[in-house]
Every structure is written in C-alpha cells, then in structure tokens.
C-alpha cells in the first residue's frame, strides 16, 4: 500500500511504518508526504506536531521538524509555535481521541483562526490503548468500552470547527485519491484548516463491528454528514491579525514617578484602615492618600481586602504610612479606622474593639454608637455646603482625617487628586472633608 | 528620580520585559489576572505576543510551543491554575524547555479563597508533576525583589533549560508599595545558547546543559515529551533511559551553588535563627529587628531560592544557633526541609492559615 517514496525523500524518511496491516495511518501519511512534496517547502520549516495514540507516532517517519507532546494538547503547542515564528508550516496530526480530550483547544483554535493545519486520523476508536470508544465512535458501534453498543452520539468534528469560524474544513476517507491535493490546499490556507479523515482500525474497530471500507462512507451518510471541502473562506490568521493590530514600536508604558513636594512630621508608622462597601471608591481614595503621603516624603503601602465580586460586599483598604521604607506585611492593630458603611463595619467590628484610647475612629452619624476603645470622631456629610455623593464619602472622611490628624499637608492630597483622574470631583470632596 | 507606588505584579511584568520576555499566555484567575492584563497591554508594544488561552492547559502549552520556536516565555496563574499546568510542567522538564511560571498563591485547596493570601503551594510547585524530577523555584519578599527575581528566573531558565517558578502571593502581588526608582538593581539575562543540526539533546556529562535547538533555524529539530535518545527519538534502551533521567536531575542538583539565593542577616552569638520566605520574609525582618531592639540575639534568613533548598546557606545560618523559627502561611510545609537539615536543633513553626498575614509580634513572642 506504500507508494513510491523516492520523490518524497525530502519529507518521508526510510523508516517503515509501525502500523497494523490494513491500518489507514500509513496511507494518510503517504498522502501528507505527497502534499508536502507538491508544495516544495523546506522540510526544516515544517513542524509536525503529533498528538498521542498510534497517529502520534507519525512524526518519526518524516525528516521535518517534530514536536511530540501530551495527549490532546498538540493544538496548543502548534499555536505557540505558529505565533512565535509565523513563517513555519505547522501541521498537527491527531487521532479522534485528541478531539475529545483536546476538544476545547480544537474549538478555540478554529475560532481564533490560528494558521495551522490539523489532520485528524479518525479511526473511530482508541486503537493504541485497546479499542475503547472515542468522541467519534458511531452510535451503536461495539468497542471494548461499549460492549452493548455505543450510546453516545458521535462528534461532528467538521461541523464543530466550521460553525466556529475555521477557515478551511474537509471531510473524507483515507482512500480518497484527491487527499494529497486537499492536504496541500489546507496547508496553503492562511487560517485554521482541518481535515477529518475517516479510516479503518483493523486491530479493533473493524473486527468488533465487521466494518469495511464501504461502511466508512455508509456511516458518514447515515449520520447525515457531508464529505469534500465543507468550508473555505478567506480569513486572516490570528498571528497576522495580531501583528497588524498593534504598533510593535510603541514602547512600554513608562513608570509613574511621584515627586516629593512637601514634608511630614510623622515620627512613627501609622496604619489606617478604611472600611466601606465595594463600588464606592474606597481603594482609589485610599490610594490617593498614599500618593499624597509619598509626595510628603513618607513611605506608604496599601493592602486591600474584598470579596471576589467587584461591586457588592465590603471593601477594605489598609494604608500604612511610615517615615522610613516599609514592605508589605501585617500592620497589627490600626492607629486609625474609618467606618463608612454597614459592610465595612461588619468586617472591622472586632478590630474596632481591640483599638485603644490612643487610636481614633472616623465615621458618619449612622455609626456614632459603634463599640470601640478608640476616640470616635463623627463627621456628618449632610453638614457640608454641597451635597456629597455616596461614592465620595471615603475621600471626604480621609481628607478630614488628614486635616485633623496633621499626618501630612492637605495640599499634598490636593496635588495627588489633581494628578489623577476625576480631579474636579475629587478636589471638591477633599475641600468638603477639610471644611467638615 | 522620585518614587513609585506600585504592586508586586507590576514589578514582575517589568522584570519579565527587562529580561527579554517575548511571549506570554495566561488565563484569568484571581489574584494573578493583573499580570495577564499588563502583559496583554505591554508585550505587543515591544514586538512580543501575549494571548489569553481558553484555559490554563492551553496557556502553558502555547508557551512551550513558542519557546521551541525562539520565544522567551512566561505564564502566570494561581494554585488552581498550577493544578492544570501539572502535565505540561512535566513536558517542560522532559523536553528541557526554558519557561518562567509565576504562581500568585491564594488560599487552597480547590477554589479556596480567591482573594486570600497563602503560602500553601511551596511543596506543590516542587512536586507538582509526575516523576519527581527537580525544578527551580524563586520567591521574592518585596516589590524590588519581585522585579529582579523575575529576571533571575528567566536567566536560570536559560541556564538550566527547565521550568522556573516565581512563587509570590496575593498580598505581595497586589499590595501597593513605595519604591525608590533607584532601588531596582540592573538585571542581566544570559543570551540563549542555540544549536542547529545534529542531536538536540546531550546526556554526557550528565550535568551538562546542551544548547536549545529551535524550530525554523535551518535544520530539522525533533522535540518529544516521551523518554528519548539524544536525537529526540523514543527509546526504551536501558542505558539511554538511565542517562536521560539522571541528566534531568544532575543538571540542576549538580549546580545548586549557581542557584542558591538568600538574604542572610546573621548575628554573632545568636541562639535563634528566624527563617522565612515570600511575604512572610517581611515579617521575619521586622521581628528580627524588634527582637534585637529588645536585647535578644537573633539571626534572620529570608530564602529567595526555595528549590533546590539552599542547603549550604541554611546550614551556615544555623551554625551556632540552638533553635530555628520558621513562620509560614501554611501548617509547616517548608519547615520539614529545615527539620531535615537541623541536626537535632529545635525547629519551631509560627503558622497561620486563616487568610491573614503573620504579625511580626507573633514571631517576637516566640523569640523572647
């Protein structure tokens, strides 16, 4: 069954195939060799990425480059190779088993249109591990794991990748005379190309189901599947589209350097806990305080705690200000706490109870009665000249805190606000907080 | 020059770019997503490629493929993602693929606490794939260390052609920290030694690391995750199998001295050594300083190279002390490595697994 390999010697090497008599693998590989010969690509520029199973042995019979990785993941390696070096011709050889374990990769490579060619050696079962059923085993078929007949509907590989954007899709059998041309066509296609090639597994599927060459096409018909080129559309491959979408000479984002423009008398580190609700700018207000402290020559850290959701539940920021350099870590009992909402109060209730008379809590009238050993300073946003939006409450109370405790000059906070986004709103909030 | 207010993730991204990273693939996961987002933003601006995979398996697979095609690759995830990386970590070990893997630890097991700090992956990264072969793992304890140890991870990945982990955590990766712009040390990453033509692997001498044969450099290259001969062909020849497997171990174990990295603060006459890593390293330094202010003689050691265990540096730091205190955000996972080296010394853990950091005061209490 092996064709004359002499004209193909640049691709197929001299090693005889290890496949069972009558197995379709050798025939498909010969046709791949013919396709490569017709394209005249430098063999070292061809990477055969082989999956696992009998078809996974294929790369050893070619003098091209080869990548033999893990079961079902061949498409992911091929994607990385193609993206990193787009001039390579990347061909994946996988069995029908690979379309099961690697199904997610198959669909997503098609969707992305990564410029690789996938050859599925579809022999309708796991031929290397003992003839178990695969995703493409026809319903009713007997395998070593479906002794009473397969109860699962077979996967339509071509339909799956076709509806998800694949550039080129073909279904046929290992007996198709035009398979070399179709393989060459698929390789030439710039986008994701897949050939679903049905074939006989003479070790298991054929004897278990008295399956013949004629049954391949009969089964395709019975399942309502089509053969031939099922889809061929002009699409840019992902790598080309990616390179076109970005300016590779734009240069990286430069670090934002904060100048020291003020001074602070702070003698020892102080930890400030801001306890509010998610979605109310707790973290960004706390960050502004840190930046203002840095402008004042201090060193700041900010550690946040929040639930996995973004706009509900608590939002806690722990800001530590220090006259000397500090690294991330536990700050212990805070010197200052700001309680802004019920969510925040719930999170810091025990912390408030452990705070002593040398510490201070800033809060709004609603929580004036909170239990703590700290001095409580109640700030009433309703007393401000202008209405304070809920989302500015954190910054208003932080500005009041900076002003009353004299941690660093309020002017530094104004500078930090002016340097960032929403500067008008934030400057108004700072002024309101200082006035309260 | 001024100072910055940045987190550890930003420093990792900067370290990777300065180390010449050209490829990144990752899948969103708290608390590692900000590394993915920053790489998606920054890499294309310098001609690199960053891609969000359909899952973690695809992401690390793409990195391995890209490396073989000439890229310097990094991926970043958290514990649940490392679980999915497992099989491909093995592939990178077997195929001798340089690769940097960032693990931003969160509380486990399973989905655990997504926004909660932990140091529970310290043994997991070492033993996280089948076969038990060595990998390298580095652990920063500050933002500037996050920067230069990331670059170091790239350097060691090239030197030893293996996956190198950068083990950080939710707090170190996300805590904003003031950093003097002048405090970043210059980083240097060795150029990749590449080969073309001939056998892509070499097992003699067994600790020798052959140059990486990349695809697309004019000669056919064979790469395989199966037990292979030096040509990249599957083999069951006993001598070859033995030589390959000893080589995978010896190339790292035989060069521990090139990997050992610690920050030692040893005091003459100290009776206790406090040893930690990662975010807990900050608590170790603070506790040592506080104890000394209280008149206690104590040494401190912050381990930067977790795997292989820096046995020479640890043994030196233990000389003369009677007791070793090991604070960790787990129930004593790295402590067992210290116990192994302690030679009868008392080894005491300070452990926390409620998702909060260890207060330096809790360490000082044990030192008193």
Structural class of chain B: alpha/beta
Residue share in helix of chain A? 25-40%
Count of runs of 4 or more consecutive helical residues of chain A = 14
Q: Into which percentage range does the β-strand content of chain A fall?
A: 15-25%
Which parts of chain A are unreliable, with pLDDT below 50 for 5 consecutive residues or more? 1-7
Query: What percent of residues of chain B are in strands?
Result: 15-25%
Sheet with the most strands of chain A?
Answer: 7 strands, mixed
Strand order of the largest sheet of chain B: 3-2-4-5-7-6-15
Largest sheet of chain B: 7 strands, mixed
Radius of gyration of chain B: 21 Å
* Rg of Cα set of chain A: 34 Å
What does this structure look like?
The complex is a heterodimer of chains A (436) and B (368). With 436 residues, chain A is α/β, with parallel strands linked by helices. Chain A is built from 14 helices and 15 strands. Chain A is 33% helix and 18% strand. A 7-stranded mixed beta sheet of chain A has the order 2-1-3-4-8-7-9, sandwiched between helices. A 6-stranded mixed beta sheet of chain A has the order 11-12-10-13-14-15. Chain A has a two-stranded antiparallel sheet with strand order 5-6. In chain A, strand 11 and strand 12 form a beta hairpin. Chain A starts with 24 loop residues before the first helix and ends with a helix. In chain A, 54% of the residues are buried. The model of chain A is unreliable at 1-7 (pLDDT under 50). Chain B is 38% helix and 21% strand. Chain B has 13 helices and 17 strands. At the A-B interface, strand 2, helix 2, helix 4, helix 9 and helix 10 of A face strand 1, helix 1, helix 3, helix 4 and helix 7 of B. Strand 11 of chain A pairs antiparallel with strand 8 of chain B, so a sheet runs across the interface.
């Amino acid at each position: 069954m092996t064709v004359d390999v002499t004209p193909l010697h640049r691709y197929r090497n001299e090693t005889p195939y290890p496949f069972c008599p009558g197995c379709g693998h050798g025939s498909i590989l010969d046709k791949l060799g013919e396709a490569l010969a017709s394209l005249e690509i430098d063999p070292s520029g061809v990477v055969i990425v082989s999956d696992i199973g009998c078809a996974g042995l294929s790369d050893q019979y070619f003098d091209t480059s080869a990548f033999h990785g893990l079961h079902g993941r061949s498409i992911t390696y091929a994607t990385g190779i193609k993206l990193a070096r787009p001039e390579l011709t990347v061909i994946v050889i996988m069995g029908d088993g690979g379309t099961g374990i690697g199904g997610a990769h198959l669909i997503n490579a098609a969707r992305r249109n990564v410029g690789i060619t996938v050859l599925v050696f579809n022999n309708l079962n796991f031929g290397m591990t003992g003839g178990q059923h695969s995703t493409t085993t026809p319903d009713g078929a007997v395998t070593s794991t479906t002794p009473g007949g397969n109860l699962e509907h077979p996967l339509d590989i071509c339909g799956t990748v076709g509806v998800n954007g694949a550039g080129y899709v073909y279904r046929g059998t290992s007996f198709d005379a035009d398979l070399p041309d179709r393989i060459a066509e698929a390789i030439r296609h710039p986008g994701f190309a897949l050939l679903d090639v049905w074939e006989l597994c003479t070790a298991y599927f054929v004897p278990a189901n008295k399956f013949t060459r004629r049954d391949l096409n009969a089964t395709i018909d019975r399942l309502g599947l089509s053969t031939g080129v099922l889809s061929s559309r002009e699409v840019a491959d992902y790598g080309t589209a990616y390179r076109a979408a970005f300016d590779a000479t734009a240069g990286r984002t430069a670090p934002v350097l904060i100048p020291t423009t003020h001074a602070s008398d702070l003698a020892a580190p102080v930890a400030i806990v801001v306890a509010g609700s998610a979605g109310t700018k707790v973290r960004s207000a706390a960050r502004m305080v840190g930046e203002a402290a840095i402008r004042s020559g201090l060193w700041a850290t900010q550690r946040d705690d929040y639930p996995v959701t973004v706009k509900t539940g608590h939002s806690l920021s722990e800001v530590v200000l220090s006259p000397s350099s500090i690294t991330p870590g536990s700050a212990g009992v805070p010197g200052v706490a700001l309680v802004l909402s019920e969510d925040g109060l719930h999170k810091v209730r025990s912390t408030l109870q452990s705070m002593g008379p040398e510490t201070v809590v800033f809060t709004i009238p609603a929580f004036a009665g909170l239990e703590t050993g700290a001095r409580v300073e109640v700030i009433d946003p309703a007393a401000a000249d202008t209405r304070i939006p809920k989302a500015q409450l954190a910054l208003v109370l932080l500005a009041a805190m900076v002003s009353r405790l004299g941690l660093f000059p309020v002017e530094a906070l104004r500078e930090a606000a002016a340097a960032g986004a929403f500067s008008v709103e934030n400057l108004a909030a700072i002024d309101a907080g200082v006035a309260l | 020059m001024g100072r910055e207010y940045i987190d550890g993730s930003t420093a990792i991204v900067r370290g990777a770019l300065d180390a010449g990273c050209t490829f990144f693939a990752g899948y969103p996961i708290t608390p590692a997503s900000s590394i993915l987002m920053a790489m998606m933003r920054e890499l294309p601006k310098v001609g690199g490629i960053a891609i969000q995979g359909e899952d973690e398996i695809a992401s690390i697979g793409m990195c391995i493929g890209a490396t073989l095609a000439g890229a310097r690759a990094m991926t970043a995830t958290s514990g649940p993602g490392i679980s999915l990386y497992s099989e491909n970590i093995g592939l990178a070990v077997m195929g001798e693929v340089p690769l940097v893997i960032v693990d931003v630890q969160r509380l486990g097991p399973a989905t655990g606490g997504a926004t909660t700090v932990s140091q529970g992956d310290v043994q997991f990264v070492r033993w996280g794939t089948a076969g038990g072969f060595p990998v390298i793992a580095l652990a920063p304890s500050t933002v500037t260390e996050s920067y230069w140890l990331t670059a170091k991870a790239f350097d060691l990945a090239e030197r030893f052609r293996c996956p190198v982990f950068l083990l950080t955590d939710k707090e170190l990766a996300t805590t904003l920290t003031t950093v003097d712009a002048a405090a970043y040390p210059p980083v240097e990453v060795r150029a990749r030694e590449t080969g073309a033509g001939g056998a892509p692997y070499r097992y003699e001498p067994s600790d020798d690391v052959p140059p990486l044969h990349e695809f697309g450099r004019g000669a056919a290259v064979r790469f395989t995750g199966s037990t292979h001969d030096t040509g990249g062909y599957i083999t069951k020849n006993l001598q070859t199998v033995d030589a390959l497997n000893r080589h995978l171990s010896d190339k790292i174990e035989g060069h521990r001295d090139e990997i050992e990295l610690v920050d030692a603060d040893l005091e003459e006459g100290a009776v206790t050594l406090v040893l930690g890593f990662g975010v807990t390293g900050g608590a170790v330094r603070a506790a040592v300083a506080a104890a000394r202010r209280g008149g206690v003689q104590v040494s401190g050691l912050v381990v930067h190279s977790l795997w292989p265990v820096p046995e020479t540096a640890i043994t030196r730091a233990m000389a003369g002390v009677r007791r070793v205190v090991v604070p960790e955000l787990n129930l004593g996972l790295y402590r067992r490595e210290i116990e192994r080296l302690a030679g009868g010394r008392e080894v005491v853990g300070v452990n926390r697994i409620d998702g909060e950091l260890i207060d330096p005061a809790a360490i000082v209490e044990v030192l008193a």
